[in-house]
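Researcher: Go.
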Amino acid sequence: MQIKPGLPTPSSPGIQKSGIFKEKTTAPKPKLTPSPLDRLQLRSEKPVSKAELVSRMLVENAQIKPNPAKKQQIIDELCAFPAGCLKLLSKMGNRIVILASSQSIRAAGVIKPLNPQNFLEAKSVKTIRKKAAEAMAKPREGKENPELEIYLDLAKATAEEIQIAFLDQKTATCTYFNSYRKPVTLPRGETGEETLTRLVSSLSRPQSAEQLKELVEVAKALNPESDSPFLLLPDYQFRRDPDGETRRYKTEDLSLMKDWSRAAGMYRRQERTVILKENMLDGIVTARAAGNTSLHEAAHALDYAVETSDPDYYREFDALAQAKFRQFQAEPEKMISPNCLSGLNEFKAEGIAALMGKKKDRLEKLDPEWYHAVKNLVKRADRLGEAADSSPA
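Model: Structure:
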């Protein structure tokens, strides 16, 4: 399981970074004070092992009794990745959190209440509108499934807290592009504010007139152009927390809080955090997945690391992944595991986990082209990590 990108957030209470972060540096020459440039060029004397790289990303959970065996298991499993891959993950600030089966996903510090003001930043709204217009205008002749490609492009264009919809005046329908929600049919002759009210009410399900009023005001601020076919809508809901306070959470985050009891782990792109459930570390329901929990979630992290570090290269990989995903949907017997059918990101992560785990040969046999694409992605990550490690700190 994996979630869309954003900014990292600080660790929650009770979770502290583990590992030793001080690096040994070459001692300066006697009686000489190194210049700032000299300091930048200092290097670690001793290479860091893969086990140490993984250990540095692990964080301690004060609510779980330390389990050296589980920690060592994760280290051993993730050491299947080349050293450069682990260096890239570490360089990007990824961390690994283990939660007890009884702990809420909020204990990992990856779900925070929202502030409505976050939706009103003009710069981000303008960027989303520009990307949406580009996605809709992009030529797609000869594509097998142009609607899916538009969906994928628009999903990448939007912020997580904002839902984007396309208003078709001819059919009076509004189609959401970054969710699985069905199109909404609009009454003929409805005003712009009435449409916004209808859509945000359906999207966020407010429980009071005050909540609906807030959502409509935010939606109006997001849509200053009344004639635009694109509607930007706040995608958050209100939740009464155990302390009695009502707070706002992303719709996706609320779903995660509900679904966490059935999950074995997940990767949060926003906070660059791999979250593992302690009692599921011995296998991510092995009948459905290509690798164990830690490999699968780290595969999500590696996929995102390459996407962020080398977008030009990743664009080509992603295009092939989309084509293969559509192909395998028609031929599910070629999927490395049933979990691949969950979505494009799961399909990519399962490919990486299979390559690093025990299903490498089966992946190659099922589809040599996809196997080599995944293998090259891991090689790319390895080179990116080694290059980052050799660059000045």
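Model: The first strand starts at residue 2 and ends at 3.
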